[in-house]
Each structure stands twice: as C-alpha cells, then as structure tokens.
Amino acid sequence: MNEGLRNDWTLEEIYEIYNQPVLELVYRAAHIHRQYNDTGEVQVCTLLSIKTGGCTEDCAYCPQAARYHTGVNVQALMKKDEVLEYAQKAKDAGSTRFCMGAAWREVRDNRDFDKVIEMVKGVNELGMEVCCTLGMLNEYQAARLAEAGLYAYNHNLDTSSEYYDEIITTRTYDDRLQTLENVRKAGVSVCCGGIIGLGEKKEDRMKMLHTLCTMPEHPESVPINALVPVQGTPLADRPRVDIWDMVRMIATARILMPASMVRLSAGRAEMSVAEQAFCFMAGANSIFAGEKLLTTPNPSFDDDMAMFDLLGLKPREAFKDEKVVC
Ligand code: SAM
Ligand code: DTB
Ligand code: SF4
Question: Is residue 293 situated within a structural domain?
C-alpha cells in the first residue's frame, strides 16, 4: 500500500463521509483528487463484447443472461482479427484502454480461452492497456492471462455481500473474492467496483465500498455503474438512479481510494453534460467511450469529445501509473 493510502477504514467513517452535505463532500473529494491525480485528465476506455449473450448465470441486472428475454442476440466468440481491428480503431480515436467482455460464468480451459489469450497478446502489442472481464478465473488461468500481457482484470463485487443473494444466486460473493485474489496473485491490476440502483439500501452501498477499500491493496480501478434497466430482466422497472447518489458514490470512493482510477461507467447515456461534470469534479477520472457499452447504448464518441472540449478535459495517456512508479 502506497504512503498515505488507508485500508483500515471503518464502516462508520464511510457513512460519515457519504452523509456530508453533498457540496461539502464534492469539495473534499475534489481536493483529495488534486493531491493524487491530474484532474484535467480523464481516461478514455473502450469496451467490446467478444462473446455476447446466452450466459448461464442469473444476475438480475444483466441483459446477457440466457434465462431473461431481453432481445440480445447470442454471438459466439469473435475472431481475433476482428477484435484487433476494433482495438486499433479505438486506439486511433484516442482510447488508451481496451476491455474485452465475455458472457461467461467462468473461464474454461478450452480453445476459446486459447483464442482470448491470443487477443490479449495482440491488443497488448498495440500499446493499449488491455483488460478482460470473463467471469470467474482460477490461479492458473490468471497466470496465463498475465503471461500474455493482460494489464487488468475486471470482476465487480456489484453490491454488498448481504444484498448479493437478492441479485445473483448462481455463484457466491466468496467466489467473486477468490477470483479477485487469483488476479492479484498473478500480478494483474485489479478492476473492481459495483452497480447502484439495484434496489439496495444505502447500507449496502457503504458495505460494498468498505469491502473495496479494506482490501490489502486497493483495486487500481473502481468502476461505479448506474443500473441500466433492461426490458426482460427482473430489474427492468427500477427507477433511474438519482444523480446525487452517483455523485456521492464517486466522491466517497475517491476519498477512500484516492490513488485509484474511479470510472464513471454504465448509465452515462441518461446523464446530461452538467451531471457528468459533477461526477468528474467528485473524482471520476475515466469513461467508457463508443456507441455501446457491452450491449446497451452509450453517448456517441463525438458527443463525448465535445464534452471534453467544453469542460477543458484531456484524454489520459496509457500506462500512466507505471510511469509514476518507475
Ligand atoms: N460475465 C462476466 C462477469 O459477470 O463477471 C463479465 C461481464 S459482466 C456484463 C461485467 C459487469 O457489467 C457486471 O459485473 C456488472 O457490474 C456490469 N453490468 C452488467 N449489466 C449491467 C447493467 N444493466 N447496468 C449496469 N451495469 C451492468
Ligand atoms: C463495468 O463495471 N462496467 C462495464 C465494464 N465493467 C465491463 C460494463 C457495463 C455493462 C452495462 C450493460 C451492457 O452494456 O450490457
Ligand atoms: Fe453472465 Fe456476467 Fe451477465 Fe452475470 S453479469 S449474466 S455472469 S454475463
């Protein structure tokens, strides 16, 4: 753990931070953000669903679960060349991190995994931070991905351990934590966050943040997603997440894990530029750009670049943390 970073936060301290008057909270988070990060920069990342839909799991929010009828077309694993072409285009457009997602419960040691390993090598060779989100991983699989040049692995806690069973029953919270440990052990950077708007209480949000910020090492990357309600899923009728809840989550994550990348992830399509600006002020320093997240809509690339111009933000270069350490 770097100097100045704490992993002994108590739940009470987290409540106190989160419950401050919102403008005071944003002010404090913005102050800490300036001490640890270049606040004029926001990393532009690209997501690609390399294997879509047909997933065996029952994650209540997810349009890719086979058991819900969401209209998502099932697609087998993409070809390496197509993926690399997509990554190159994303890089040319200014993206510095490329995240490949697969609608899998877990990685299996089969030919599809061999193909993903080749994709990881290829994207790494493009000079982008390469990230994957493929479901659960064992130690051996994490080591294989690391050897291929994987920079980061995304595996979210999604919510508190207490509320988790209301959202997913086909695997446990401990399974999630075990995968994260395997990723960490392999020396791959950890990307781990969650979703708000699932019907959880404030207490669940605080507990999720507590689990993240008391890990022996903070996740280097913490995505905060606002639920994108999708027709056909059990959460289709959940109301839109209040922007102030999103701002509070981001600001609290920034204060608790000051050196991590806090990613303003799903939910931007419903947010105005002014609302997103508040999220950046509160400490978010990354977005996913491109018309689609994995399967749901996202603001257009041009709109995002216009937003960067308007707010005076510039895209962050790749591997910046590595340079700070060296
Ligand atoms: N199958 C893998 C897994 O579950 O780990 C990887 C893909 S999964 C789609 C990646 C993450 O996307 C989930 O953990 C969840 O946090 C987020 N996500 C999925 N559907 C979402 C939705 N409708 N709204 C917001 N976030 C969502
Ligand atoms: C994360 O936390 N959010 C991204 C990324 N990690 C993989 C995914 C959001 C998915 C939103 C629903 C969809 O587009 O299918
Ligand atoms: Fe499958 Fe991942 Fe969606 Fe859960 S979140 S249903 S594991 S693709």
Answer: yes
State the CATH number of the domain containing residue 221.
Answer: 3.20.20.70
Ligand 1 atom with minimal separation from the 158 CA: 16
Q: Report the amino acid identity of residue 282.
A: A
Cα separation, 22 vs 321, in Å, equals: 30
Ligand 2 environment, Cβ below 6 A: 47, 63, 99, 101, 133, 154, 156, 193, 223, 225, 228, 265-266, 293-296
C-alpha 130 chain-centroid distance: 13
**From the alpha carbon of 263, which atom of ligand 2 is closest?**
2
Select from 192, 198, 195 the least CA-distant residue to 211.
192
In a domain, 28, yes or no: yes
Is 1 part of a structural domain of the chain? Answer: no
pLDDT tens sequence for the chain (326 residues): 666 799 999 999 999 999 999 999 999 999 999 999 999 999 999 999 999 999 999 999 999 999 999 999 999 999 999 999 999 999 999 899 999 999 999 999 999 999 999 999 999 999 999 999 999 999 999 999 999 999 999 999 999 999 999 999 999 999 999 999 999 999 999 999 999 999 999 999 999 999 999 999 999 999 999 999 999 999 999 999 999 999 999 999 999 999 999 999 999 999 999 999 999 999 999 999 998 999 999 999 999 999 999 999 998 877 777 654 43
Q: How many domains does the chain have?
A: 1
> What is the whole-number distance in angstroms between the Cα of residue 56 and the centre of ligand 3?
8
For the question of residue 62 being annotated catalytic, the response is yes
Establish if 204 belongs to a structural domain. Answer: yes
The residue range of the domain holding 83 is: 11-314
CB environment 234-255: b (16+ within 10 A), e (fewer): bbeebeebebebbbbbbbbbbb
